[in-house]
Amino acid sequence: MVIIAVQTRRELIGRYKVNFAEFYLINTHNGITARNITPVEINNYPAIKEHLDKYWEKINKREDQGITPYNLRSCAYMDDFYKPKIIYPGIMRIAKSNPKNFPRFALDNDEHYFFGNDCYFIIGENVEYLWLFLNSTLCGYLFRYFIYSFDETGFKIFTEYFKNMTFPKPNDLIIKEAKQLIKDKIDISEVDKWIYNIYEFTSDEIFEIKNSVNSLISNF
Q1: Which of 152, 127, 158, 171 is nearest to 219 (CA)?
Q2: Structure-derived torsion over alpha carbons of residues 78, 79, 81, 83, reported in degrees to the nearest 10
Q3: 7 falls in which pLDDT band (50, 70, 90)?
Q4: Tens digits of per-residue pLDDT, 67-97?
Q5: How would you write the chain as a 3-class SS string?
Q6: Is the CB of residue 152 less than 8 Å from the CB of residue 144?
Q7: Which residues sit opposite 148 in a β-bridge?
Q8: ∠16-21-25 over CA atoms, to 5°?
Q9: Contact 21, 42 (CB under 8 A)
Q10: pLDDT at residue 152, as a whole number
Q11: Closest Cα to residue 196, out of 143, 144, 132, 104?
Q12: Which of 8, 129, 153, 180 gives a 20 to 30 Å CA spacing to 67?
């Protein structure tokens, strides 16, 4: 049995961080072999069993049962929730209350947030580096060209769209610079300058990027 922090509302995904909703979930599943987590024996938790038994008619009919009706079948990527990850909402809107909070991708290095199917996550190498790019003004500019927009201020984000967005492969120096940028409070202007320098953009190109994103968020 694992008690985990749960982030379920996509609007609580902020730029750079998760605004945790203070929800927790008691996760009972078949276990994770790689982490030596064994299946839950429900009789060892009488109070929880008593609570779940109130819903026996429903849980006994679930198609995603594990080894007992009290256990959920472990999903293939269960262990990935414990890895450093970038979390983002499936639908990303430019909020009227805070239009500059765009784009917004949160980094979870050690909180192990779990969430429902309205949020998604990215894992892999150098996630801090990718995280800075995804929250940059440049990424906001690229949204118009790579991310499906269903109106002027809403974007539906599918993993497939990210595959077409080009980010330079980082070297050791860039990784070192990225870690330095996130060491203190994030300064988006400094991050943007760093990214523009990596791409070697001209002043005209930088103006086009800034102007385009400013026009997008100034519709409010």
Answers
A1: 152
A2: -160
A3: low
A4: 888 887 777 787 888 899 999 988 888 877 7
A5: CEEEEECCCHHHECCECECCCCEEEEECECCEHHHCECCCCHHHCHHHHHHHHCCHHHHCCCCCECCCCCCECCCCCHHHHHCCEEEEECEEECCCCCCCCCCCCEEECCCCCECCCCEEEECCCCHHHHHHHHCCHHHHHHHHHHCEECCCCEEECCHHHHCCCCCCCCCHHHHHHHHHHCCCCCCHHHHHHHHHHHHCCCHHHHHHHHHHHHHHHCCC
A6: no
A7: 156
A8: 115
A9: no
A10: 66
A11: 132
A12: 8
Structural Rg of the chain based on CA atoms: 21
To which residue do tokens 């450093």 refer? 84
Question: Rounded mean pLDDT of 13-39?
Answer: 71
Tell me which residue has tokens 């730029």. 15
pTM of the model: 0.80
Rounded to an integer, the average pLDDT of 41-68 is: 85
Q: Which of the four pLDDT bands, split at 50, 70 and 90, describes residue 132? A: very high
Residues 193 and 201: beta-carbon distance below 8 Å:
no
Whether residue 103 has a cis bond before it, omega within 30° of 0:
yes
Q: How far apart are CA 50 and CA 66, in angstroms?
A: 19
